[in-house]
Amino acid sequence: MAISTSTPPDGAPGAAHPAGSGSGTEDQRRSTLLHRLDVRVAPYAFVAPFFVVFAAFSFYPLIYTSWISLHRVELSTLNLMEWVGFDNYTALWDDDRFWNALLNTFTIGVLSTVPQLLMALGLAHLLNYRLRGSTFFRVAVLTPYATSVGAAALVFTMLFERDFGMINWMLSLVGVDNIDWDNSKWAAQTAISTIVIWRWTGYNALLYLAAMQAVPRDRYEAAALDGASRWQQFLMVTVPGIRATIVFTIVLSTIGATQLFGEPLIFGQGPNGVTGGADNQYQTLGLLLYEEGWKNYQMGRAATVAWAMFLLLIVVFAVQQVVKRVLARRA
Amino acid sequence: MAAVAAVSAFGLVAGCGGSDSGGTGGGKKDGKVTITMGLFGVMGFKETGLLDKYMKEHPNIVIKADVAGDEQTYYTALQTHLAAGSGLKDIQGIEIGRAKELSDTQQDKFVDLAGLAGTDHFLPWKQSQVTTKDKKVIGLGTDIGPMAVCYRKDLFEQAGLPTERGEVAKLWEGDWSKYVAAGKRFKQNSKDDKVAFMDSSSGLFNAMIYGNSQQFYDKQGELIYATNPVVKGAWKLASEAATSGLTAKLRQFQPGWDPGLANSTFASTVCPAWMLAHISEKAGPANKGKWDVAKAPKGANWGGSFLGVMEKSPVSKEAQELVAWLTAPEQQAYLFEKIGNFPSSKTALGMPEVVDATSDYFSGAPIGKIFSAAAQEIPDEQVLGRKDGTIKDIFSQGLTLIEAQNKSPNEAWETTDKRIEKAVG
Question: What is the per-residue pLDDT for B12?
Fold first, then answer.
C-alpha cells in the first residue's frame, strides 16, 4: 500500500523533486499522505480487531447488563421492559438469598482456595527436586485440569452419593455413619470444594514450579552452606523468591471462587441444582444469577446479581491493594 | 489496510449476531427435505424407531432429532432460543407444565395446528391445554400420564401386606391417606429397616394435586396455591409421610433414585404410565417379576407432552405432516406397547393394542386396563397456569426440606411460599 521508498528522508517532497510534471507532484503528495496514514493509522487498524471484539463481547454486554438491571424484564419477552430504577438493587440488598449466596461463595471459596494453594505449593516444591520421570509427574498433575468441569463434577457426585457412593462406603469401613453429602450444609460445601481442589491444584502447582525454577540456584547453595534444612530453604528462599506468582495465583483463585458455578450446579443435579440444595445450602452467587435468569426467567434481577458480583470483585481488589500497601509500608 | 481490517472485524461481529436468525435448521436441498426436532426425556419417537420408519416411508425426508435428557435444561434452552429468535428447530416438544406459558406468551411463534387434517381424535381436555384464547392450537398431544401405584410384591410380602394387585388396590381404595396408613403398617412390620415404603414424598404430593381440576392457579389465572385446600391437603399428607420416616428420602429422577430402584431401597412409588419404562430399565432384569402395578386411590394425570411446529420453519408443511403422523392413534398405540407412554388420543384408547396391553416386567399386570381406568377418572378440565412447572419444582424442594433436612412442615411451607413469590413475582 505505502510507497515509502520514493519519499526522501527529509520529508520535504517539493524540495527533492523540483517542478516536474504537475501530476508528479500530485503523486508525491498522495504517497506522502498514504505514508502518513500508514504510519499513524495502520497500528490502530492492527489493534482494532481486539477492541472491536472487546467492545462487542465485553463492554457492550457490561453496559447492556446494567441497563437491563434497571428494568423488570422476562427472558421470554425481552422486548417488553419496564423501568424500575434501582428497585432491583434495593430488593437484592433486602433478599436473604443474596446474603446466603454471598456467604456460601465466601466459605466455599476459602474451603477450596486455601488448601488448594498450600497443596500446590508443596507439590511444586517436590516436583522441583531432581527426580526420575519428572516430566511424567508434571504432566500428571495437570491432567485433572484438562478434564471438563462437567465430567469431574459428575464423577464426584457419584462418589459422594448418600446410599451407594464410594466415599460413604469407605467411611463405613472405619465406622462412620452414612453422611448425606447433598443435604448437610458443611458436607456439601466440603464435597464441592474437593472437586475444585482436585481440578486446580495441579494447575497452580505448575505455575509455582515455573516460578521456582527461576529462583537462582546459588541462593539455595548459600542457604545450605549456612546449614539451612530443606524446610528452612523452602520457607526462607523458595517462598520469598516466588512471591509475585503467589499473589498472582491468589488473584486468579479469588476470581475463580467468586464465579464458582459448574461444580455446585452439577453436584446438585436437576431442579435442585440451580438452587444449590433444598435449603440453598451451597448456592453460590453464580447459581443465584442463573436461578434468577434461567429458572425464574427474571432477566432484570439476574443482571442485578451480575453487577453485584462485579462490584464485589472490585471491592475485594481494592481491599487487597490496601492490605498490600499497608504491609509494604510496615516492611 | 485499515479498511480491510475494519471490515473483517465488523464481519466477524455481524456474523455472530445475524447469520441464523431466519431458519430453524431444516430446509430443502437436492430434493431432500430436512426436518429438525427438539425433544426431551423419553418421548420415544427416536428410541422406538418411529422416526426411522417415517423416513423409510418418505424417502425424500430426513429427520434430525436432538433429545435432551432433562426437561428443565431443554426448556431453558428453548426459552433462550425463542427470545433470541435463533437456534430453534422445526418441531419443538412442549411439556405440559410449560403449555400455558407458551400459549400465553409465545403463541405467535408457533404454527396454528387447528383443523390440520386427521387430527380430530384427541381427548378434549388434552387439546384444550394448548388452545389459546382465540382458538389457536400450538401443539398436538403425544401422551398423557394417568397414574397408578407401582409396588414390589416381595417387599410387601415380607412386611405382611397383601401382594395380589386387586387386594393391594383395596388397601388404599378411594383415599390417599390410606396409602400412607398402609405405609405405616409396612414400616411397623417390615423385617428390613433399610427398605422404605415409598421413594419420595413429592411423588405422593404430585399424585394428589394432579387429581384435581384446579391446582396452583384458578381459571382466571390467579395464583391460588396458598389457599387451595387441595394443595394444603396434599402438603399435609406428604409431609406426614416424610416426618414418619416412610420415605427413602430420594428425589425422583435424581442421582440416588436409580440406584435405589436397582438395589431395592423402597417398596412402592406412585407411577404415571410413562414412568414404567424408566423403572424397568433402572431396576434391571434382576428385579423382573418382582414389580407389580395397582390402581391408585384416585385418578390423576402427571405429565404428558405436545409437539409444536415453529412459525419460522422453512419446511412447515412437511413438519406439520410429521407431527400429525407421530401423534396419530396408531403411533400412540405403538408407543404405549413399546415403552408405556399412554395415548392422548381417544381413538387409540379404544384400540386392542392399548386395552389388552400387559407388562411382562410388572408381573404381567394388565396395564392397558389399569391406566385406561385411571384415565377415565382424570377430571375433564385441567386448569394450567403459567408457572406450573416452576411451582411444582419448588414444592418438591420444600418437601425435601422436611424429608432430608429435618425442617418442620410449617417452616418448610413458609420457605416454599416465599420462594414461589420470588419465582413468579
Answer: 37
What is chain A's length?
331
Name the burial class of residue A290, with classes exposed (0-12), middle (13-18) and buried (19+) by CB atoms within 10 angstroms of its CB. buried
- Quote ipTM for the complex: 0.80
Band (A131; pLDDT cuts 50, 70, 90): confident
Distance CA B348, CA B253 (A): 29
What CA–CA distances, in Å, run from B1 to A30, A34, A56, A154?
Answer: 16, 11, 22, 49
> What is the rounded CA–CA span in Å between residue A129 and residue A134?
9
Put simply, whether A294 touches B (Cβ < 8 Å) is yes
Q: Strand B91-95 and strand B32-40: pairing?
A: parallel
Chain CA centroid to CA A76, Å? 30
CA distances in angstroms from A314 to A65, A100, B14, B76, B95, listed in the order given: 17, 20, 32, 31, 42
Q: What confidence tens digit (pLDDT) does each residue in B151-205 have?
A: 999 999 999 999 999 999 999 999 999 999 999 999 999 999 899 999 999 999 9
Phi and psi dihedrals of B112, rounded to 5? Answer: -75, 120
- Answer whether B13 sits within 8 Å of A53, measured CB to CB: yes
Q: Is B110 left (phi over 0), alpha (psi -120 to 50) or beta?
A: beta
Say how far apart CA A287 and CA A285 lie, in whole Å.
Answer: 5
Nearest to A183 among B5, B404, B422 (CB): B404
Average of per-residue pLDDT values in chain A? 87
How big is the CA angle at A118 (ends A225 and A113), to the nearest 5 degrees? 155
Using the beta-carbon criterion (under 8 Å), do A279 and B407 form an inter-chain contact?
yes
> Does A19 score more than 70 pLDDT?
no
pLDDT band for position A270 (50/70/90)? low
Q: Give the one of A41, A76, A158 whose C-beta lies nearest to B79's C-beta.
A: A76
Backbone angles phi, psi at B121, to 5 degrees: -115, 10
- Mean pLDDT computed over A15-25: 51
Contacts 24+ apart (CB under 8 A), A43-46: A44/B2, A45/B1, A45/B2, A45/B5, A45/B6, A46/B5
Cell of B342: 399412554
- Half-sphere exposure of residue A196: CA atoms within 13 angstroms, side-chain side: 29
> pLDDT band at A23, cuts 50/70/90?
low
* A23 vs B236: CA distance, rounded Å: 96
Spatial strand order of the sheet with B266-272 comes to: B196-198, B266-272, B147-152, B291-295
Interface residue of A39, A297, A299, A304 to substitute, partner B, most B CBs within 10 Å: A297
CA distance B93 to B91: 7
**Residue B101 · residue B287 · CB < 8 Å:** no
- Number of A/B CB contacts below 8 angstroms equals 102
Nearest chain A CA: its distance from B409 CA (Å): 14
CA distance A286 to A309: 8
